[in-house]
Amino acid sequence: MNIYDIVFYLFAAITLASAFVVVTARNIIYSAFSLLFTFFGIAGLYVLLGADFIAVVQLMVYVGGILVLILFGVMLTNKITSVQIKTGTLQVIPAILGTALMAGVLIKIFTGTNWHSQMAQYPTKTTAYALGHILLTDYVLIFELLGILLLIALIGAATIARKEEKAS
Amino acid sequence: MELLIQAGIALAKILIVITVMLLTVSYLVYFERKISAWIQNRRGPNRVGWYGALQPFADVFKLLLKEDIVPSNANKFIHSLAPFITLFVSFATYAVIPFGPDIKLFGRTIQLALADVNIGVLYVLALTSLGVYGLTFAGWSSGSKYSLLGGIRSSAQMISYEVSMGFSIAGVILLSESLRPMAIVESQYGFMWNALIQPIGFITIVVSAFAETNRLPFDLPEAEPELVGGYHTEYSSMKFAGFFLAEYANMIIASAMIVTLYLGGWQFPYIDKFGLSMGLTAGIQVLSFLLKMALVLFFFIWVRWSIPRFRYDQLMNLGWKVMFPLSLLNLIWVAALIMIFNI
Description:
heterodimer; A: mainly alpha; Four Helix Bundle (Hemerythrin (Met), subunit A); 2 domains; about 75% helix; globular; B: mainly alpha; 12 helices
């Protein structure tokens, strides 16, 4: 067990423990807070795997964008903290089927992957360079399609917001 | 042994940078008061020490000795956590800012930056977006409507201005073809300063920096007439001092970023043509970095005591309808420059 392993298990523990709190916390605001640490742990794992660019983007998009939105929602509706967020109907059989399917896929991936991970070989150029190069050559179609998808989402959001304004 | 020496150098650099920063922060408060007094034709602090030079220390002791009050309906854990998040973000950002060229000391090359990271610029942006949490947590956990409103205002403001700040930084990245702060500084050799090449981007980044640091004319999170003290209404003693410290540390970081990205960083125009010795050149370069930073900081203070506060809708309009299109225009301008002149 070298330093690399220790750091890996540290980040893995942070991620798993905080993710557990996200799911089990009674108070929804604590769920939102511990999601912050989950994202942090994942960013740490990315850095450990040599994907520094992905790690920083993970922080910018998930922590700086999405989680702030979630927190806004939770904080502005502060009555939500005392509400039982539990559904009354329990669908036992579909739930078991769903989790079994998910578990099967995960186990298959878990056993089928070669887990020998080690300190990443840093590319001679930066990761940002390598990523940008791939995105604009081999995967340019997917890149452009994703751009269009995001544009559609943006226009959709703007349209919905505008309609509400007219109605009031 | 080699590892120990490297760790020692890193530790020494961290110690020096933190000490210099803390001292600068405390004296920035002093200079803010002195300059404001000068602008308003007053005397300013002049009782403690020579022309009030020991005033910052007196203030720190006063804050340390005050009682720490936590409101009864506050969320205790998050209430105490918030100032630490804010401080952590302010100090961690400084890690990637280069304050001088590589120097040779006792046969080894030392970089005058805490960490020369390949994605340094993105690191700063990521940490800035973390800064929102300190203010939001502080506002929410205090259990007071003024704090909550202040916290929410500040996060909305920071998120809005992050967009135009990101785009004005993108122009710089496009021109220097690197995300490394060191490479960005080196690309601005001579008078190739980005402020001169892309003036629109310079304007947008300065305005965004004012909004990001919550300084007047954009200090709505703590607008006294409407919100009492904003997100730190319910903070006292050293926790309040934490926010206060972070605000000035953020100012230092914003000015350091503006200098690094747009004003040539530690470059002194054509200094290598003067035929000076290695050490003297490096010294002048570090000094020129500090001087540029001091000038930007003076500008920050000058603006604060000259311009009244914006209204909230004006602030949002300015951010989304003026600064954001301008920063996009700057990006197109830089792209056109690269296409035409092949730089």
